[in-house]
Amino acid sequence: MATTVTAKGQITIPKPVRDLLGIVPGSKIDFRRNPDGSVVLVHAAKRQPPSRFAKLRGHAGKGLDTDAIMALTRGEP
Q: What is the pTM of this model?
């Protein structure tokens, strides 16, 4: 699939490629140069190991409100 480079050096990644790589707005993209001179587009998130905190992000516990969380943090009964 071919695409055109704008005057600012920007390109539009064709939808089938975005869908294949799971690229959405805000995704980070890497361009790799192979030994043969070809360039490969890589979805950066797919090659990085997940953070050890990623599975905890956004979870305070099931059914706890802010006051209950603060009580647990302070060691209150």
A: 0.50
